[in-house]
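Here is one chain, start to finish.
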Amino acid sequence: MTNERFTPVAAVAELDSLFAQSRDEPVILFKHDPYCPISAAAYRQMSRITGEIPLIDVARAKDVAREVAERTGVKHESPQVLVLRDGRAAWSASHYDITADAVTEAVAQAG
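Its structure:
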């Protein structure tokens, strides 16, 4: 299940540019577990959002997922979406709270 909208984040170093980018505009981070049915539902919701979405595969990039929790102070869950603004988590949701509408609204408010 691949979608060109999603950009894999496979290394901790890649987070630096995403956190820096959040100083100029909201950045969505999507923590996804490809083996979880709840995460599959969240993936479908995130597929409805316009624009590029950095995706952390929590099964393959556990260190990246842990680093996001460390940098933001938001307890790791999967699936999970964070909206970063000014280098911090402006909003987060997990599991069935991840909807295209909720994420779109969070990005608009963080903008």
